[in-house]
Amino acid sequence: MKVINFNNHKFQISKEGILFWFDKQIAIIADLHLEKGSSFGPSGQFLPPYDSEETLKKILNTIKDHKIKKIILLGDTFHDKNAISRMSKKVTILFRSLIEKYEVIFILGNHESKFEIGQINFLNEYVINDIHFIHEALQTSVFQISGHFHPVATVKSNIKKITAKCLLHTNNHIILPSFGQYTGGLNITNPVLKPFLNNESKIYMLTKKSIYKFTNKEIEI
Amino acid sequence: MSDILKIEPIDNWLKKNNWSFYNHQVETVKLSENGFDVLLVAPTGGGKTLAGFLPSLKDLINNKSEKNKLHTLYISPLKALTIDVHRNLTSPIEDQGLDISVETRTGDTSAYKKNRQKILPPHMLMTTPESLALLLSNKESKDYFKDLKYLIIDEIHVLVNSKRGDLLSLNLSRIQSISPDCKRIGLSATVKNKETVLKFLTSKNKAKILNVKETSFPKIEILETKTRVPWSGHMASYAIEDIYQKIQKSSLTIVFVNTRAQAELVFNKLWQENDNNLRIAIHHGSLEKEIRRKVENLMSLGKIDCVVATSSLDLGIDWGDVDLVIQIGSPKGISRFLQRIGRSNHKFDEPSNAILVPSNRFEYLECLSAIHSIQNKLLDETREKKGSLDVLAQHVLGVACSEPFQVDDLYNQVINAWPYRNLTKTKFLEVVEFVKNGGYSLKHYEQYSKIGLNKDKLYAINNKSVRNRYKLNVGTIVESYMLKVKLGNKTLGQVEEWFIQGLNEGDTFLFGGRVLEYQSISNNNIIVKSTSHTHPKIPSYAGGRLPLSTELSIEVRKLLSKKQFWKNFPNQINEWLKLQSKFSNLPSLNGLLVETFPRLMSGKKRFFLICYTFEGRNANQTLGFLMSKKMLRIGYKPISFVATDYALAIWSMNEVKDVNSVLNEDLMLDDLYEWLEETPLLKKNFRDAAIISGLIERSIPGQKKTGKQVLFNSDLIFNVLKKHEPKHLLLEVAREDSYRGLIDLDRLSEFLKRIEKNITHKKLDRISPLAVPLILEINRQTIDKSEMEEYFLEELENEMLSEVGLN
Questions:
Q1: Contact B716 A44 (CB under 8 A)
Q2: Position B524 confidence tier, pLDDT thresholds 50, 70, 90
Q3: Please, are residues B318 and B84 in contact by the beta-carbon 8 Å criterion?
Q4: In order of start, what are the domains of chain B with their CATH numbers?
Q5: How many CB atoms lie within 10 A of CB B242?
Q6: In sequence order, what are the beta bridge partners of A206?
């Protein structure tokens, strides 16, 4: 894990892509996109229907060793409004055990619709100690922790280019990488991420083994 | 002779042109009339295509076939070939005022024309395997093909033992069930395994091979140049002046190259040399089809002096009177080279002229071997491949699109196709399950099944959209994601997405023979502008590299091992080899030479290990992966390796002191399976299989998806599937394709056995002459992606930390 100081609070990012706020016993996770795999089913593309199982197990396994009470899901938890109805029995059990073991805060994402997914109460934002938890970062000066963009970064050596999921930390912003098993990525060189990047930005690239910290300059633009 | 055939209008047409029939043309008609399916094996220029059409023409002329009934189907692997053959066939038909309609149908045919052809078919239709699959998936296909009398398959040898061939073979079997009496004629270039090609053509016992012997031998030489053959590279820039002079002396030259990058560069250089304003054109697969058609037309009108082309001009097209073929770089295979040579002097009984231009030193040896092989009539052997299950999945869906099927009937039809003759019923049912709903043990997609049993207990598609989606996904060629190159409103052609990812705004590159400046990407188009720069910043883009055939590899090894052959080598090559033998050693015929030496790479000391195997790129690549794995375990910290057709170079952080420890036979057996599971190759093959089988669609209507994302996602799917269903059909396909694509593992195993106790390890203090081309070779492969990333990232981070004084 690497420590990130944000608005005078201490956060830690795990290589799996979960942001911990241990002082508050909170785990923050973005973009699970549950049942993304099965969402292609109606159009006749039968992707292996095991992504939600993988995603949920990974969350449970990563946080079980830590003292966590609350989980904040930063939106796009479900890939679409029918995601819950497509869940297999196994996935339903895993999902239930997650919301029963922990207090889960659901932030509303653009893939979700407030009134249509199960009994879930979606919030547009959630605030603790002046830190706003939202789905998509806003260009304001309040401290925000968000997801939405699925950031990935590329570093270039003289041998090859390497692309990996990353967490972005710029001034008042933390943007989390997507956590879902079938989620793709948006390179941080993409113009839509430009407002959230400057020379002060820190980029934490996540690999299977470890986390590597870079500054914006070192990233391939 | 011609009156034997009794096809008056054709006889007249021949007489008028002062031509007469060849023996094999007459034989083909006779055999076909006696109810035989015929495989005609002949060198190019032997009137092969006409021979294929004669039985059908005779039948149409003498038996006045009804209008608007499909009588003859002609299938060729190349779109361009259908157009060419169409033109050649139209000439006698129009000349004699025959009432025979001939049309083409390919991916380029307009929707209007396609619809019209569906309702009012011509007598003769010329098409490709993919377009045939599409035609057969129509609801009316049974009716459409029921009167078919003749089926002609051109260049059939290129289709055998490929996924495209699998698809065609399945559809041939389907046609046979619709019109059992339809006669088949296969046209093939000279190949080693004719019997297999015949089996592929037809399952009937009444079938014969007609073999036409060559009457003339090609004149082939290696280009003599004023400048030296370079150490490495693939562009042959050193020889441009001499090539230009040869072009000048001939009336129409085709300059064949192996990659599009070579095509662009050679074209560009020839124009820089072009003081006499020769008309030089370029032709490759990435160029917009209008541009290609234009070049082809100019060729046939004799309005061009030279065309620089890739394999896009390889096959039997007869564009004008080519009198010289120049091959730049090694042809990489004997059969391919013969085919290319055949482009010149497209006349049966006159020798073809060809000049080989090696682009580097190893290629010089290779070119000599190619000439040697042709003189000794050695041919490449293609290894037989069993029918792929991803292609079968595509076909099963196609059949269901055309009409409901009964499982046993379809199974019998499938095993009638040569590549699938040994398919078990169990496997077949597994494929049907896969088509239905993905074939997972978790029954998750029942409700969305693509096919299901109808009230008559037949499998049928569950809704019309399945057919529409099927049509978008037909075919077995999975290309990298392509972006259109736009200059103003004009589309110049396409390039792979990865190429453009390496470009920055303002970078210049060569495309379609001109220097373009990259501006931006918008809506999947690459916006470029013209520039006055003559030297592009990014030389060009690779793509389309051909692997060296096994037979040529062996020839090169022989040549190198026997010093008596060397007297024919030019001085520079001779010197190079002599210097090598003085400084290090020469590779022997049966042993293995291994060299190790330290060398700086990007400012860091690295240890290089070179194995001169001459076993071909695929074998070397596999060996490279396996050896790196072993080195990793021992702690040598391998960084990366380069595999060429001739040798393998691995570099590491630590010195490999005991070569035998990383090069013994058990290393394969231990690591192979485990290694394969982790290779990018398996992932790539999985992606292809997922697309061919229809698991992932090529294009999802209304959804913009870049190729990059598809690749990324298919990797994720791959990992999940491997974990949950390790025996899934598509993983099976991907594994099989990987084993085959890599090399026959037997060969590598043989190699390791052969060299055991016969390894010469030369410990050098610097690079050897023979290693120079390898070190210069820029193409780099990673060993183990994840390990590699860790090394590199750690290093880079440490570097930066010390830079800012934190380490």
A1: no
A2: low
A3: yes
A4: 2-211 (3.40.50.300), 219-375 (3.40.50.300), 389-476+682-739 (no CATH), 482-530 (no CATH)
A5: 18
A6: A211
Residue A171 CB neighbour total at 10 angstroms = 12
B696-708: b or e for each residue (b if 16 or more CB lie within 10 Å)? bbbeeeeeeeebb
Residue position matching structure tokens 């710029």: A170
Count CA atoms within 13 Å of residue B786 on its CB side: 9
Alpha helix (H) ranges present in B663-771?
666-678, 680-692, 707-724, 729-742, 745-755
**Mutation site, B431, B441, B443, B445, interface A, largest A CB count within 10 A:** B445
> What number is the average pLDDT over the span B406-415?
97
- Is residue B317 within 8 Å of B45, Cβ to Cβ? no
d(CA B459, CA B605): 65
* C-beta atoms of A46 and B782 within 8 A: no
Distance CA B676, CA B686 (A): 12
Judge whether B730 and B722 are in contact, CB under 8 Å. Answer: no
Burial class (CB in 10 A: 0-12, 13-18, 19+), B23: exposed
pTM given for the model? 0.80
Q: Please say whether the dihedral angle defined by the alpha carbons of residues B91, B94, B98 and B101, taken in this order, is positive or negative.
A: positive
- Highest-pLDDT range among B98-107, B396-405, B616-625, B763-772: B396-405
Closest in A38, A155, A208 to B444, CB measured = A38
Distance in angstroms (rounded) separating the CA atoms of residues A79 and A93: 18
Instruction: Say what the ipTM of the complex is.
Output: 0.85
Higher-confidence residue of B752 and B165: namely B165
| Among B463, B181, B224, residue whose Cα is nearest residue B358 | B224
What does the block give as tokens for B155?
Answer: 């260049």
A67 touches chain B (CB under 8 A): no
pLDDT tens figures, A25-71: 999 999 999 999 999 888 888 999 999 999 999 999 999 999 999 99
Segments in chain A forming alpha helices (H)? 51-63, 83-86, 89-101
Burial call A82-113: b when 16+ CB within 10 Å, e when fewer: ebbebbbeebeebbeebeeebebbbbbbebbe
The rounded distance, in Å, linking the Cα atoms of B323 and B586 is 40
Distance between CA atoms of residues B632 and B626, nearest Å: 10
Say yes or no to pLDDT of B706 above 50.
no
For B221-235, B298-312, B668-682, B755-769, which range has the lowest pLDDT when averaged over its residues? B668-682
> On the CB side of B316, how many CA atoms lie within 13 Å of its CA?
30
Size of interface A-B (CB pairs under 8 A): 109
Tell me the residue type at A102. Y
Q: What angle do CA B380, B384, B389 make, to 5 degrees?
A: 140
B32, B38 contact by CB (below 8 A): yes
**Closest by alpha carbon to A146, among A103, A193, A102, A100?**
A193
Give the span between the Cα atoms of B671 and B627, in whole angstroms. Answer: 9
Distance CA B634, CA B639 (A): 14
pLDDT of res. B349: 60
Q: Which of A44, A88, A212 sits opposite B469 (nearest CB)?
A: A44
Q: Which residues of B touch A207 (CB under 8 A)?
A: 786, 789-790, 793
Q: Which residues pair with B520 in a beta bridge?
A: B527
- Angle, helices B617-634/B745-755, rounded to nearest 10 degrees: 60
Between β-strands B482-487 and A19-21, what pairing exists: parallel, antiparallel or unpaired? unpaired
- As a whole number of Å, the CA-based R_g of chain A is 17
Three-class DSSP category at B604: strand
CATH number for the segment(s) A2-218: 3.60.21
Alpha helix ranges (H) inside B34-139: 48-62, 79-95, 111-119, 129-136
In the block, tokens 């889960």 appear at A104
